[in-house]
Structure formats: structure tokens, C-alpha cells
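ok new one. same drill as before - C-alpha cells go in, u give me an amino acid for every spot. 162 of them this time. try not to just spam alanines like last time pls lmao
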């Protein structure tokens, strides 16, 4: 999109986020702050996220998301569980390329469309705050919200929980 971002999230496939953050704190002298945002299913917080400040920049570190029966997921599982396709892209630092496991994220950015990777009602039921994120991203980037997402946002099921 040609926009700079200071938001850095690291996802891991073989170590817990808090353990990785502890290693960073040990190895990088300019590390300040280190906290863990615990899982809280009542508030739709399904993963534990470590947060650490390195060189005056906050970085969030978490495991790849998975269905509830395992601790660490695959990149595709994680991408499909994200709120929006445009937020489901990965940058593979080993290969220096963007990975789009939903097959829609890059295309949706190019077309300026807000869409959910899975069924929108299910996505919003998992975390009702995602409805607000849809609006925020649409306004912030001047994107269009796809009709399936608009319909889900207006459904009685979602309106009751939000």
C-alpha cells in the first residue's frame, strides 16, 4: 500500500511467545519492558501474547493460532483465524517474501476490500470487537467492506453481542 508501519508482530511455530521474549531480553541489552497478556476467553483473548520493547519499539510475540485442541498452529490455521484477510499476511523473514495463506489478502489490498478469511458471523462471534476493527480499517484506508461482512455486521446475532 506504500504506507510505513511501526507495528511489528512476531509469530512462532516452535516456542511460546513469553519464552522467546525472555530470550530476547537476555540477549539484547537495549531491551526494556517485558509483559505477557494472558489468555482470557471471557474477553475473547484466545492466545497469550508477550510484549517487549526493543530500541524504543514495542513488539508483540505470540504463537501461531490454532483450533483449541492444540497449542501451536500452522501458518494457514493462524491466517484463517485472523479477523481480516488483509491482517492475515505473513512476511517470511527466512525467504524474504509475503505469504498469503488465505489466498485473498494480497488481492483484497489491491482491490481495497475488507473481508474475513472465514464466515463473517463466525469470525465476529469469536471476538465481537472485530466488528469495530472492520470499520476502523475501512475508514483508515478508504476500503470497501464486502457485502458478506456488512450483512454479518447487521445480523441480529452480532448486534446482540456487540
Amino acid at each position: 500500500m506504500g504506507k510505513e508501519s511501526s507495528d511489528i508482530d512476531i509469530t512462532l511455530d516452535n516456542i511460546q511467545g513469553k519464552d522467546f521474549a525472555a530470550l530476547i531480553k537476555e540477549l539484547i541489552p537495549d531491551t526494556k519492558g517485558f509483559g505477557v497478556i494472558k489468555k482470557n476467553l471471557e474477553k475473547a483473548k484466545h492466545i497469550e501474547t508477550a510484549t517487549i520493547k526493543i530500541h524504543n519499539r514495542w513488539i508483540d510475540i505470540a504463537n501461531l493460532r490454532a483450533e483449541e485442541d492444540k497449542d501451536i498452529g500452522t501458518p494457514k490455521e493462524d491466517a484463517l483465524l485472523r479477523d481480516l484477510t488483509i491482517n492475515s499476511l505473513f512476511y517470511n523473514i527466512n525467504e524474504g517474501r509475503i505469504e498469503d495463506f488465505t489466498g485473498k489478502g494480497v488481492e483484497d489490498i489491491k482491490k481495497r476490500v475488507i473481508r474475513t478469511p472465514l464466515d463473517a458471523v463466525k469470525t465476529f462471534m469469536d471476538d465481537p470487537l472485530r466488528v469495530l476493527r472492520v470499520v476502523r480499517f475501512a475508514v483508515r484506508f478508504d476500503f470497501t467492506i464486502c457485502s458478506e461482512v456488512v450483512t454479518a455486521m447487521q445480523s441480529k446475532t452480532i448486534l446482540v453481542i456487540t
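The CA atoms of residues 65 and 81 lie 7 Å apart. and btw Residues 40-45 have pLDDT under 50 and may be disordered.
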